[in-house]
Amino acid sequence: MPNELPAPAPTITVETKPFWDGTLEGKLMLPRCTACQHVIWYPRTFCPECGSLEVSWIQASGRGTVYSFTVNRRANENVAYRNADRTELVYVLAYVELAEGPRVLTNIVDCDPETVRVGMPVSVVFHDTGQGSALPRFKPA
Fold first, then answer.
1. d(CA 38, CA 44)
2. What phi-psi label fits residue 68: left (phi over 0), alpha (psi between -120 and 50 degrees) or beta?
3. Radius of gyration of the CA atoms of the chain, in A
């Protein structure tokens, strides 16, 4: 199946810039608290676990497993990503639990949506927005 999901450009803030800069280099960068070692998602400048302001950035492995998902189907004549008979938009919206711990909301791509399962190993891929960032999505590992 093609991977022509829309790739809207995110709003980049001071707190999220290292994350989005990493996506352009094909790296999944995550903040980690230097006080308690908690890996943080969504990127921010403080630790939601212990409240520390001592946060540094690490390169994550890009590996994870599908924690939860839904296959979305929507009739729409104005979208590029469709099923084989081109009558509906079909895509997988999922929570992926990263090897480093956080769960991220994303899409599962590069596979038949009917083959996605909870616990399925996945790895990150990046889809360029064309506006200085790339969206992390996941494919079967």
1. 12
2. beta
3. 16
Structure tokens at 54: 């001592």
pTM: 0.87
| pLDDT, tens digit, 9 for 90 and up, residues 6-22 | 788 899 999 999 999 99
Comparing C-alpha atoms, which of 102, 104, 129 is closest to residue 24? 129
Query: Which residues make Cβ contacts (< 8 Å) with residue 86, sequence separation at least 6?
Result: none
What is the residue whose two structure tokens read 């230097």?
34
Instruction: Please give the Cα distance from 23 to 37 (Å, whole number).
Output: 22
**Cβ 122 vs Cβ 65: under 8 Å:** yes
